TrEMBL record:
InterPro entries: EDC4-like, EDC4_C, EDC4_C_sf. Transmembrane segments: none annotated. It is found in: Cytoplasm. Residues 31-141 form the Enhancer of mRNA-decapping protein 4 C-terminal domain. It comes from the Eukaryota. This is Enhancer of mRNA-decapping protein 4 C-terminal domain-containing protein. GO terms for biological process: deadenylation-independent decapping of nuclear-transcribed mRNA.
Length: 156
């Protein structure tokens, strides 16, 4: 007869979402540690590798855009820049106003740091930029007139 191992006791509450919440908090802690160590590429790589854009927004909100994307010493690779643009672009259309300012500031600087001729990303640039334009136009159409100018500035 085969014996089953006893269930492992867990200190976590038995809610369905507890492991996901704990994993998200662990990833946020890891990102904050990497940012504190000025390891921007690994921090943003972790953020854009997550299944939602929430960590990308979190990473941007906790990093200094001027330090990470200072020209000519941009501290992120082109693949991470395009991934970050894509993730931030997808949330612009529905972002809460509290995070929208962060997203817009980062998107503007990411656009300035993007090298569309870079062989590692060139085939993805048109699609990502088109998605970004669509998201911005959706947000403009939805309406806060105070957002019209910063959103349209991204398109120019």
């Amino acid at each position: 007869s085969s014996q089953q191992a006893p269930p492992v006791a867990s200190a976590a509450p038995s809610r369905q979402s507890a492991p996901a919440v704990n994993q998200m908090e662990a990833m946020k802690a890891e990102i904050l540690k990497l940012l504190a160590e000025k390891q921007f590429e690994p921090a943003f790589t972790r953020a854009v590798s997550a299944s939602t854009a929430e960590l990308a927004v979190f990473c941007c909100a906790n990093a200094d855009v001027n330090e990470v994307l200072a020209v000519p010493n941009v501290r992120l690779s082109q693949p991470i820049i395009i991934c970050l643009m894509q993730q931030l672009g997808t949330v612009v259309a529905t972002a809460r106003n509290s995070t929208l300012q962060v997203e817009l500031e980062w998107l503007q600087d990411l656009a300035m740091s993007l090298d569309p001729k870079d062989k590692t990303i060139s085939q993805h640039v048109p699609r990502v930029l088109q998605q970004l334009v669509t998201s911005i136009n959706t947000r403009v159409a939805d309406g806060d007139p105070n957002l019209r100018r910063p959103l349209q500035r991204l398109l120019s």
